[in-house]
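Recall that a protein's primary structure is simply its ordered list of amino acids. Everything else, from secondary elements to tertiary packing, is in principle encoded there. The following example makes that idea concrete.
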Amino acid sequence: MTTTERENIYASWLQEHRGILFKVIRVYAHRQEDREDLFQEVALQLWRSVDSFRGDSSLTTWIYRVALNTAMKWKGREEARQQRVGEPTLIAETDQYENEQINWLYQQIGKLSKVDRSVILLLLEGFSYREIADIIGISESNTGVKIHRIKQQLAEAAKSTDHYAI
């Protein structure tokens, strides 16, 4: 593959799938500067993955896999860094949606483990259990168990905060 072909593929991936990238980044990075750092990290990994894409899965699945794996690794490094320097690890909402329920949902998703965040994000995007399992790298039955537990956790949180409509 020529450099020009690679650049064109990369540019089209970023353009066509930026919504996916922004959703993943929003779930894993809460401050604007963190989102910018994570976007750069994801973009770099996408660039590196252009030659690795063989078409065994859909391009959307591939993009999610690269973005989620990069975000989970980044989040782990960030949490370790924050503990070393004593920065707060609570969610810092800097941009709010007009809908209070969406803000609440993003806050709750942000409190989940890295893998659970990925699972629920993919579920909300309409992926099947099989597709989620393939992207995350877990079994389909484990995916179902995780989704069930996440739903229970969100329902309990909604009851305790009067967010019954979610």
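The two ends are 48 Å apart (CA to CA). The first helix runs from residue 3 to 16.
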